[in-house]
Specification:
By secondary structure, this protein is an all-beta fold. The protein contains no helices and 15 strands. The protein has a 4-stranded antiparallel sheet, with no helix packed on it. It has a 4-stranded antiparallel sheet with strand order 4-3-7-8, with no helix packed on it.
């Protein structure tokens, strides 16, 4: 029934657009969407006149980094608002899509470039890096793991929002040593590759 569903991000705030295969008969498309975990539902805006055999429906603007569900069905009468949903006029089963992730910006920033780094187990560290200062940059995270660990096991230490061409981060290294990574992200939470900074061991 639903032939395509896309999240439009180049026309202001993000919103969902569905294309539904047209059907034979005097039926009207109706549908709703809602944010995961919420009981509040919103009607889809439906263009009932088919184009290339498709009926198009869209949501209102969605929240960045939100997760949504949507359902549509055919009705024997044209829906005029939420009050008409569920009045026994539905002529088909619901077609439902869940777990739709909405991101206003799907392009991550480039990975931060490490300019210099130094550190001593039980002492301090200094990291100087250059962030990607393009339109997709929001902030850079400093991650730490035990010596020999992988990034998947690292723990987030802090965020850095500095937009200088060179950014310095300092801190203390545990006595048992540690390994550090940097990773940048955009405002929608899309992340760059993680960059291994260094490892400081006793």
């Amino acid at each position: 029934m639903i032939s395509s569903l896309v999240v439009t991000t180049n026309d202001g705030p993000p919103y969902m657009v569905l294309a539904v295969d047209d059907t034979t008969g005097p039926y009207y498309l109706g549908g709703q969407y809602w944010r995961e975990g919420s009981t509040q539902r919103f009607d889809l805006e439906v263009q009932q006149t088919p184009s290339d055999g498709k009926i198009v429906a869209r949501s209102l603007p969605n929240a960045d980094r939100g997760q949504y569900n949507v359902q549509v069905a055919w009705y024997t009468t044209r829906l005029t608002g939420p009050a008409t949903i569920g009045l026994g006029k539905r002529a088909s089963e619901y077609a439902t899509v869940t777990g739709i992730e909405v991101f206003a910006n799907t392009t991550p920033p480039d990975a931060p470039a490490v300019i210099s780094q130094s550190g001593t187990a039980g002492g301090s560290f200094t990291i100087i890096f250059a962030p990607d200062l393009g339109a997709n940059y929001h902030r850079t995270a400093l991650w730490r793991g035990v010596p020999g660990s992988t990034f998947a096991d690292a723990t987030l230490l802090r965020w850095n929002y500095d937009t200088s061409s060179e950014v310095a981060i300092t801190g203390s290294v545990p006595a048992d040593g540690a390994r550090y990574w940097l990773q940048s992200e955009n405002g929608s939470g899309k992340t760059s590759a993680a960059v291994l900074v260094g490892q400081y061991i006793p």
